[in-house]
């Protein structure tokens, strides 16, 4: 059974009476749980062969209406979300530098149904380091109160600033920032990139790949819901996808967006077509 399914089942045991009405808000707890999983995946830092560290302190920003509905239960919900993150980390063999905490905050710039997740790694004073592993310093403030923000302090100085993803007008979903770049492959290691569409594999042999309904696109998608030049994948560390002004937009890992970072296994939906992005060493 998946981690998200277990989370939903645990939540069902807590939902009754007035508490049940809270979850009729636009933002559902399982949506937040999925976003926390992605936050771990996109911010995972490889320390050595046996240790991958992920954030342990999370802020979930909600619109005013959603925050008012959920805030009376923020403690209980935060504990459940922290437990879900712990279970997911165990499944993925991630480790933490300190206690897992999930907080809810109100964001006046978000509309109902939209949310945003921020995270950081906070080292616990009682946390025991593995022999030979240096203790990481908690990142300093990076443009947001409390030290949250992008890019993290460890990011290269030349890294471009993040761009907020813009959901389509009136649409639902999160409004995330582009995630920091994952760890670069070791020197000398070559990466392979490809996409899988309807069971067919399409290699990405150049730095960019344009997908769309036009015969001039690098990968043609015969779908009436797809624009002639719908979107473009740029490979690198990290790889990204950019909407090219399409009519129906793109959905990446369940979120409507105009630009997003990609990881191995990311699911991209254009029109009624699902595209799986893949990357691997070799």
Description:
The protein has 282 residues and is α+β, with helices and mostly antiparallel strands. It is 20% helix and 27% strand. The chain contains five helices and 17 strands. It has a six-stranded antiparallel sheet, with no helix packed on it. Strands 10-9-11-12-15 form a five-stranded mixed sheet, with no helix packed on it. Helix 1 packs antiparallel against helix 5 and helix 3 packs across helix 5. The longest helix has 19 residues. The two termini are 32 Å apart. About 23% of the residues have low confidence.
Summarize the structure.
The chain has helices at residues 3-12, 18-22, 29-42, 64-70, 74-92; strands at residues 45-48, 51-53, 57-62, 94-95, 101-106, 115-120, 191-197, 200-203, 208-212, 219-220, 231-234, 239-243, 250-252, 255-257, 259-262, 267-270, 273-281.
List keywords for this structure.
282 residues; alpha+beta; 6-stranded antiparallel beta sheet; 5-stranded mixed beta sheet; 5 helices; globular
Task: Estimate what percentage of residues fall within beta strands.
Answer: 25-35%
Number of helices: 5
Total number of strands: 17
Strands of the largest sheet, in order across it?
8-7-17-16-13-14
Give the termini separation: 32 Å
Poorly predicted runs? 15-21, 126-183
């Amino acid at each position: 059974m998946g981690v998200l399914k277990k989370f939903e089942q645990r939540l069902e045991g807590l939902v009754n009476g007035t508490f049940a009405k809270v979850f009729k808000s636009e933002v559902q707890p399982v949506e937040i749980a999925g976003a926390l999983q992605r936050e771990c995946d996109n911010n995972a830092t490889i320390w050595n062969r046996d240790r991958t560290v992920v954030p342990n302190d999370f802020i979930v920003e909600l619109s005013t209406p959603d925050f008012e509905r959920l805030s009376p239960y923020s403690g209980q919900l935060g504990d459940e979300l922290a437990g879900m993150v712990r279970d997911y980390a165990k499944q993925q063999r991630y480790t933490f530098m300190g206690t897992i905490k999930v907080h809810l905050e109100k964001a006046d710039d978000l509309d109902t149904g939209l949310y945003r997740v921020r995270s950081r790694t906070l080292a616990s004073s009682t946390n025991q380091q593995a022999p030979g592993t240096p203790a990481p310093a908690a990142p300093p403030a990076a443009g947001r109160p409390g030290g949250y923000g992008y890019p993290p302090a460890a990011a290269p100085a030349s890294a471009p600033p993040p761009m907020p993803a813009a959901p389509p007008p009136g649409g639902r979903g999160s409004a995330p920032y582009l995630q920091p770049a994952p760890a670069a492959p070791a020197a000398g290691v070559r990466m392979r990139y490809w996409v899988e569409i309807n069971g067919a594999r399409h290699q990405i042999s150049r730095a960019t790949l344009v997908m769309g309904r036009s015969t001039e696109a690098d990968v043609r998608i015969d779908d009436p819901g797809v624009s002639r030049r719908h979107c473009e994948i740029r490979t690198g560390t990290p790889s990204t996808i950019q909407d090219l002004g399409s009519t129906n937009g793109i959905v990446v890992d369940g979120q409507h967006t105009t630009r997003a970072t990609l990881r191995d296994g990311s699911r991209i939906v254009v029109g009624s077509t699902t595209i799986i992005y893949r990357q691997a060493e070799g």
